[in-house]
Design a protein that fits this description.
The complex is a heterodimer of chains A (383) and B (295). Chain A is α/β, with parallel strands linked by helices and 383 residues long. Chain A is 44% helix and 19% strand. Chain A is built from twelve helices and 14 strands. In chain A, the strands form four sheets. In chain A, strands 2-1-3-4-5 form a five-stranded parallel beta sheet, sandwiched between helices. A four-stranded parallel beta sheet of chain A has the order 7-6-8-9, sandwiched between helices. Chain B has eleven helices and two strands; from the N terminus they run ααααββααααααα. Chain B has a two-stranded antiparallel sheet. The radius of gyration of chain B is 19 Å and the shape is globular. Classes of the chains: A alpha/beta (383), B mainly alpha (295).
Amino acid sequence: MSFKHNLGLAASVLALSLSYPLAASADPDAGEYKIGFIAEATGPLAAAGVSFLHGAELAVEQINAGGSAGQGVTLVLEEKESGSDAARSVQALTQFAADRKVLAVACCILSPVAGAVQPVATNQKVPLVIYGATKPGLPKLPYVSSIVVLPGPQEIAMTQKIVETLKPKTVTYFVNADNDGFQGRFKAAQKVMEDAGVATGGVVSILSADTDFTAGATQAIATNPDLIMVWTTQTPAGGIIAALRSRGYTGNISASDVISPAPMFKKIGEPLAGIPFPISFAADMATGDVAKAFSTAFQTKYNENPDTYAAQGYTAMLYIAQGMKSLSGAPTRDTLAEAMSSITAIEPNIYGGLAMIEGQAKVDQSLIANWTKDGMIAAWEGK
Amino acid sequence: MQLFVEQLVNGVALGSLYALFGIGFGLVFSTLGILNAAHGTYASWAAIIGYYVVEWYGVPFPAAILCGVFGGGILAILVDQLGFQPLRSKRAGMLGALITSIGFWIILDSLAGFATGQQSLAFPASSYPNAMIEIGSIRISQIQLIIICSLLVCTLAIHLLIQRSAIGAAMRAVGWNDLAAGLSGVNSRIVILLTAFLAGATSGLAGVLGGIATSNVSFTLGEGLMLKGFAAVVVGGFNDVRGTAIAGIMLGIIEVFVAQYISTAFRDGVTYTLLLAFLIMRPRGLFGTANFVRA
């Protein structure tokens, strides 16, 4: 381990330790406790999956170094790969459930996968922390909770700001025809627009597996909109924006946080600049001590800035550690589940406030950001 | 009208990719008798090779295409010699080759995932011709034009090679009966290597051009081409590249028009219903000969 890495780790551990609430409690019994992590580091969502996993790994390293889960408590992150496949995810959870040393499991980027795993966790009475899926209604206390900030309120706030700032008269939408989550997000944005008197120029449907968006871009441009909103999964979103710009569309575009990870800018480049998207965490815009320390430690460990997915993987582990810390004696799955379900705010956190309501995370601050031409994430100024 | 024509051009360009890919697929089937499930990975790997030579060495566009095409061809030869040649020498039949090719598909796909860091990459915009050409009120991108021209050149060249040259006659002879061809003095080993290379190279060309046009260089690239390329071969007729070219273009146009005028949700359903209907009416495909049997 390099000096630079040690220094980064020490700084972030200090920031974490100072941020923990000073509630007096008897720590759980010292020892090693396993946390299962159902990873999606291969398969269609591998790019995001690797980020989630890295965030969780860093968190566990810091938690163990700082005793954040209790004095003498060591969390061991045990990973099983699912490739974003529901059957493999359920299989992984079942295997974790069979290992009594596993106290809790973190899982799932895709909502359908989380939906498949959720009842199994409840039946098996394994505490399950959802780290990526955005469908509302997934938490089921005391066993299933979600640290994912639901995108709805942020996206509605962004859409309202776009209406006020850009004053579009017509909007054309790109949407995944095969993704319920994005269908819902598109409809929510469309409602905000139409309530504000903004007409729908057209709706261009695409499929998640599509890679050629030339025809879709031609179709959207032909509607002559003032704004094009892209409500699709990550790879299509990048392809759509690249196709729109390469076909000469110079008008306004907006997107969701799927375009926020650094590899997206590396891939698409300047065409992403200036496109607003809502985001809960961006390393370039981090303000609080915990967020800054997290960014520094992540940069040191992985030689890249953490993205919003890494932040969620990190938060999932902090949440579990907070639950562990509140226990005394020998922790069990039941006591940990009860402890986590009684948490009303994850502390410390990197979001500047992260409430837990009925097992569902809710962020206080919402950022509207965009990529700059030189590849930084900055606050969107509405230009 | 302008939208209709632009979408027609988009459909032709998309279909040209399917056809380019399908030509190699059909070549392997008609000459070597292998339904090669790993064929899509040649396209993925060609695109990955093309991407990295641009990224690491900054080579110009034609050189990147050549590297990808050559890489696809060499990979096809490797797969053939490592996987299919031992089966061929034991006369193991089509099923064994199909299962072997599925194994190669999974292995090469996984390796492609690691080669790209499980990311979807894209060629830098400055590394290929990406301007728009305006013909009256119709706009067409340079890369679309290159794709369409590539298909025309490849179709013509491979058609002439197979139908008018001694090598082509040897390929057809091996495709018909390799033992008899060997007894007649044809070096079937060389023909097999050449066929595998040609198939991998055309698939590689589709992969590099597709990777550029769609800003998607990843292990999923070949999978996307595989089903459509296969459909183009089936509709076109296994043993005639002209049929594959026409069928590929038709598929592209149908896809784009269904998405534009009906719905994306029905796109694949409509496309494959038409495919099924066509096969019921003309099972040997557009240009396929009635007595062509391979299974």
